[in-house]
Automatic annotation (TrEMBL):
Pfam families: adh_short_C2
Top enzyme class: oxidoreductase
Protein name: 3-oxoacyl-[acyl-carrier protein] reductase
Entry-linked SMART domains: PKS_KR
Domain Ketoreductase: 8-186
Keyword Zinc: no
Transmembrane spans: none
GO molecular function: 3-oxoacyl-[acyl-carrier-protein] reductase (NADPH) activity
Length: 249
């Protein structure tokens, strides 16, 4: 199926991580130009080498999404290369799990700032370009954790906030031909998870608690992101798509 993404430019934050790189690979397969935005230069370089080896067009930009000057400079580099940014994936984020009574203010702010302030900075930098072109896709990577998880008050609050951000942005930007949607992954098998000593236990628990009895794969998330970025999803906005195998509680 042709998603109509050939020659579009996708800007992915957290693009050198497991999920970000899976999305980048899928976009390259669809004929997109890809901007890998991350904070780890070595990982950025490695990601771009892989994408180019797959026959794709990719550049890397280093930026801390909580810093609006760095975000602005990264967007400018992308625009100088490809003149437009058609797709923004706000994927940067991480968890710092602790029960609330043991959580530091630093851990609270770090998680919320990267997720929410990062989405704010990146969206505000890219939206004028999309508005001028009367086309754009903003896809925010939330999490099933927006429903709440013990030990994740910061992460759950950040992801729930990102969904509210998505809905508001959808209402503001639709008249410019821009859609905004969120993707909420469940338990995804990543190299970091596979290194956990309780990985097999987690896998069995996922099989017993999930209607689709397996862990998710990064490619599952990437496929959903690609659809929401496509012209096929032009009348879908303000939505949160759960990529959880049917697990919500």
């Amino acid at each position: 199926m042709d998603l109509g993404l050939k020659d579009c430019t996708a800007f992915i934050t957290g693009g050198a991580g497991t999920l970000g790189l899976a999305m980048a690979r899928r976009f390259v397969q669809e004929g997109c130009n890809v901007v890998v935005c991350d904070t780890n230069q070595a990982a950025i370089d490695e990601a771009c080498r892989e994408l180019i080896s797959l026959g794709g067009q990719a550049i890397g930009v280093r930026a801390d999404v909580t810093n609006k000057e760095e975000v602005g400079a990264a967007v400018q580099i992308a625009v100088e290369r490809w003149r437009a940014i058609d797709i923004l994936v706000n994927n940067a984020g991480f968890a710092r799990d602790r029960y609330l009574t043991k959580m530091s203010e630093e851990d609270w702010h770090a998680v919320l700032d990267v997720t929410l302030l990062g989405a704010f900075h990146c969206s505000r930098a890219v939206l004028p370009l999309m508005m001028e072109n009367r086309f754009g896709r903003v896809i925010n990577i939330a999490s099933r954790a927006h429903l709440g998880n013990p030990g994740q008050t910061n992460y759950s609050a950040a992801k729930a906030g990102l969904i509210g951000f998505t809905r508001s942005l959808a209402l503001e930007s639709g008249k410019f031909g821009i859609t905004a949607n969120a993707v909420a992954p469940g338990v995804i098998s990543t190299p970091r998870m596979q290194q956990r000593p309780d990985y097999l236990e987690l896998t069995e628990r996922a099989k017993s608690n999930t209607p689709v009895a397996r862990l998710g794969d990064p490619a599952d998330v990437a496929a959903t992101v690609a659809f929401l970025a496509s012209k096929l999803a032009g009348f879908t906005t303000g939505e949160t798509v759960h990529v959880t195998g049917g697990r919500y509680a």
